[in-house]
Amino acid sequence: MKNITLILLYMVFTVISASAQLPDKAEDISPLLNGETLPDAVLKAPDGSEHNLQEILRQKPSVVLFYRGGWCPFCNAHLAEIQGVQNEVVNLGYQIVAISPDSPENLQVTDEKHNLAYSLYSDANGKLIKAIGIAFKAPERYSGMLSEKSDGLNDGFLPVPSVFVTDTSGKIAFEYINPDYKTRLSGGLLLAVLKELKKEQKK
């Protein structure tokens, strides 16, 4: 438990805010914490089919990744890096689920670009992203592009890139949330976290 606590202390970057409004800055978000449960929401797959988040998470323990969109080069690099450790993640007993405000059509572009072996889902209106507390107001210069990429459903928000590790009930065992979108959880550190969680489960 000591090791995973140290990892959490170093890897979770959050600033707690009392405001219920959508924060103006990424540093002011109020995300769910370890031990809390991800809320249910209806998401869309690249083919446009609808899926409930809780039904997805019930399949097996999950690594749930939230990213800004396929238009973001840092997100693309991170998606590709996670793809590089996907087999090891699966061997540890986890599935990978990546969620963004992109429309299903734009998810297809991202999926084909990286030939991803894990699932992408659309939360274009941000219902889930906002409920988790990782949404903030996007800079005005992004508004037109975000609307276009979400089929007009994004009302001007961005998610702070985040990674949650959950059990099959959606309960959060680990989270990485960094307001600096250029800094992401590396594949190697993700594997270290998952291995430590597996050790804790065996005790």
Description:
The chain is 36% helix and 19% strand. The chain is of the alpha/beta class and 203 residues long. The chain has one domain: Glutaredoxin (3-Layer(aba) Sandwich). It starts with a helix and ends with a helix.
Question: Care to give the gist of this entry?
Answer:
This protein is α/β, with parallel strands linked by helices and 203 residues long.
Question: What characteristics describe this protein?
Answer:
203 residues, alpha/beta, Glutaredoxin, five-stranded mixed sheet, two-stranded antiparallel sheet, 8 helices, 9 strands, 36% helix, globular
User: Low-confidence stretches at least 5 residues in length (pLDDT < 50)?
Assistant: 12-20
Proportion in helices: 25-40%
**Coarse shape:** globular
- Biggest beta-sheet profile: 5 strands, mixed
Q: What name is given to the CATH topology?
A: Glutaredoxin
Question: How many beta-strand runs?
Answer: 9
Task: Give the secondary structure arrangement, pairings included.
Layout: H1 2-11, E1 42-44, E2 50-52, H2 53-57, E3 62-66, H3 73-84, H4 86-91, E4 95-100, H5 104-114, E5 119-122, H6 127-132, E6 135-137, H7 143-149, E7 157-159, E8 162-166, E9 172-177, H8 187-202
